[in-house]
């Protein structure tokens, strides 16, 4: 058995859950993975949208190195990003932005996602092949 070195990941707060960004996260009303996936399989997170303001697959949040990238997935009603100390920015369809911990991502219908600070994740022991 080997023990991997701890890695540091940001998390994204979705409602009461804090989801580790060890793989891309797709958030939407009924999220689905893209037809062609390059890299790790994304984690799909469904949020409520009574007024249908949130698209099926609305936004992707991923960690690249120590940076967090938020990408609008060509949503119908847009994605609004507020980085701490800056004015809110409305992403165009398909646009990406690098964000900091404390950033709030508004995807509509009262759904606000928060980028949480880096945390150390200690991987589970790996079993021998």
Strand content: over 45%
Q: What is the CATH topology descriptor?
A: Tumour Suppressor Smad4
Largest sheet: 6 strands, antiparallel
Principal-axes geometry comes out as: globular
Number of structural units classed as domains: 1
User: What is the strand arrangement across the widest sheet?
Assistant: 2-1-11-10-7-8
Structural class: mainly beta
Per DSSP E runs of 2 or more residues, the count of β-strands stands at 11
CATH architecture: Sandwich
Distance between the termini: 9 Å
Put the structure in a nutshell.
This protein has 129 residues and is mainly β. The protein has strands at residues 7-14, 17-20, 25-28, 43-46, 59-64, 67-72, 79-82, 89-91, 96-99, 104-108, 111-121. It has one domain (7-121): Tumour Suppressor Smad4 (Sandwich), CATH 2.60.200.
């Amino acid at each position: 058995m080997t023990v991997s070195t701890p890695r540091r990941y940001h998390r994204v707060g979705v409602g009461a859950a804090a989801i580790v960004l060890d793989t891309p996260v797709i958030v939407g009303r009924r999220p689905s993975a893209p037809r062609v996936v390059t890299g790790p399989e994304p984690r799909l997170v469904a949020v409520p949208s009574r007024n249908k303001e949130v698209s099926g697959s609305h936004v992707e949040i991923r960690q690249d190195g120590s940076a967090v990238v938020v990408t609008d997935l060509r949503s119908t009603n847009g994605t609004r990003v507020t980085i701490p100390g800056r004015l809110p920015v409305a992403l165009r369809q398909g646009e990406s932005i690098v964000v900091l911990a404390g950033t709030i991502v508004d995807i509509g219908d009262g759904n606000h996602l928060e980028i949480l600070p880096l945390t150390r994740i200690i991987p589970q022991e790996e079993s021998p092949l």
